[in-house]
Specification:
With 431 residues, the protein is an alpha/beta fold. α10 packs across α16 and α16 crosses α17. The protein is built from 18 helices and 16 strands. It has a seven-stranded parallel beta sheet, with helices on both faces. A seven-stranded parallel beta sheet has the order 12-13-11-8-14-15-16, sandwiched between helices. Strands 9-10 form a two-stranded antiparallel sheet. It has two domains: 197 residues, Rossmann fold (3-Layer(aba) Sandwich), CATH 3.40.50.11720; 189 residues, Rossmann fold, CATH 3.40.50. It is globular.
Length: 431
């Protein structure tokens, strides 16, 4: 076990210079990546509340990126209701997660980058903040993080936990490292399959407590903004949401090659790439296909807009609110899909590609509920979207089913907040 952890740590150290080069590179499009590099090595200074203040438990929540940060929002709200004196230590690894997390803070809270998974940085991080409990979101289990939490007596929880069969197999290739990372961890799993896979990797507990994403309520102001955009467009709207690329191939290119020529003339096509650093590349790709592209950053759409690029952050609810139907990306390529629940909560029926291993249970439930359709390829995506355009009654029924589906699965935030509080009480740390 120690040898596996040492080899893993050695590899991290060898790759660290390249990691910082990549940070600098990504900082061209997202300047947050070029800020506070010392924090990623466990060095913190200036303006942070002192550790160990006796005014409530400091709960560490790690939300690696945007999706996890959004999912953490209802849990954090439920934790504050359950433990009013709680203070929050919120960490991230990506710029989009960090930007979204700022809206979740209250006086006395702390938001920093999580230190890289090396013994020294993680040790300095834990000694600096001395959290009473570590709550990792969804999949963010790291060997040195787990090992240092054990050494510092910080109970480790995995909230809204999911673990695909593919990810479980990867861990099983390194059983000694898996025991370091997962041994002693407790998980609130999204599904029974997730719980079983997590237990098989060595976790001491895995309860099925539901998916926090069902408790993410669309912002009313964003919903109104989406309705205003739809009125301004003055025609049907099809949304291509969270589209991604892999290995030099993009979902945008696949969809463009299969796009029926007559369809773009009768609808407003709204493209919202998953990652901000791809906004310019996607705009260029659309223009190269002869499409007149306007950007969200330049203003709202008009009746003359034919293709609108959603180059903004934090407005997904508005994009879903304006759409008659949406394709959810990350699913035409073997990437496991993206969050379809937010679209359903906005009353937007969805089309899914074949790859759904990250959201298998939610995707199947949505298909069973009749608010989602699964397509085998890009051509079938357009066929499904066109069907809903041509059949208004079917589209309205699917939208109603989407709302009912999202509502029926709520309650995970309350259950997981109670679970965290019980773990704190068991550890004798609840204030």
């Amino acid at each position: 076990m120690k040898l596996a952890l040492r080899l893993y740590t050695l590899l991290w150290r060898l790759l660290l210079p390249l990691v910082f080069v990549r940070l600098w590179w990504r900082g061209r499009a997202e300047p947050l990546y070029r800020q506070h590099w010392a924090q990623r090595l466990g060095w913190f200074s200036g303006g942070l509340p002192q550790a160990g203040r006796d005014d409530g438990a400091l709960i560490w929540v790690h939300a690696v990126s945007l999706g996890e940060t959004r999912a953490a929002a209802p849990l954090i709200a439920a934790l504050r209701e359950r433990m009013p004196r709680m203070r929050l230590l919120l960490t991230h690894m990506t710029a989009t997660g960090h930007a979204a997390g700022a809206d979740l803070l209250q006086p006395g809270d702390v938001q920093v980058w999580l230190s890289y998974d090396l013994p020294g940085p993680m040790r300095r991080f834990l000694r600096r903040f001395q959290p009473r409990m570590a709550v990792l979101m969804e999949t963010e289990v790291w060997p040195n993080l787990a090992e240092q939490c054990r050494r510092h007596g910080v109970p480790l929880l995995l909230a809204n936990a999911r673990l695909s069969a593919r990810s479980a197999r990867r861990w099983q290739h390194w059983p000694s490292l898996a025991r370091v990372a997962w041994g002693g961890l407790r998980a609130a799993a999204q599904t029974a399959d997730d719980a079983q896979r997590i237990l098989e990797l060595g976790a001491v507990q895995a309860q099925v407590l539901g998916n926090l994403k069902f408790d993410m309520r669309p912002d009313a102001a964003l919903m109104r903004r989406g309705a205003e955009w739809k009125a301004a467009a003055a025609r049907p709207v099809l949304l291509l949401a969270s589209t991604r690329e892999q290995g030099g191939q993009s979902e945008e290119a696949l969809l463009l090659r299969a796009l029926p020529p007559a369809l773009s003339a009768r609808v407003l096509l709204v493209w919202v790439p998953r990652h901000p650093q791809r906004f310019d590349a996607v705009a260029q790709l659309l223009a190269e296909q002869g499409l007149a592209v306007e950007r969200r950053s330049a203003g709202a759409p008009t009746a003359e807009t034919t293709v609108w690029l959603g180059d903004s952050l934090g407005e997904m609810a508005a994009y879903y609110a304006m759409a008659d139907a949406a394709f959810i990306g990350g699913s035409l390529l073997p990437l496991g899909g993206q969050n379809l629940i937010e679209a359903c909560a906005c009353g937007c029926p969805v089309v899914l590609g074949p790859s759904q291993f990250n959201f298998a249970a939610a995707a199947q439930s949505a298909l069973d509920a009749g608010c989602a359709v699964q397509a085998a390829d890009a051509a079938q995506v357009w066929q499904a979207l066109s069907h809903w355009l041509d059949d208004a009654a079917a589209r309205r029924q699917a939208a109603q089913r989407a709302l009912a589906f999202a509502s029926a699965h709520q309650g995970a935030a309350r259950r997981q907040a109670e679970w965290v509080a019980a773990a704190l009480a068991e550890a004798g740390r609840l204030q």
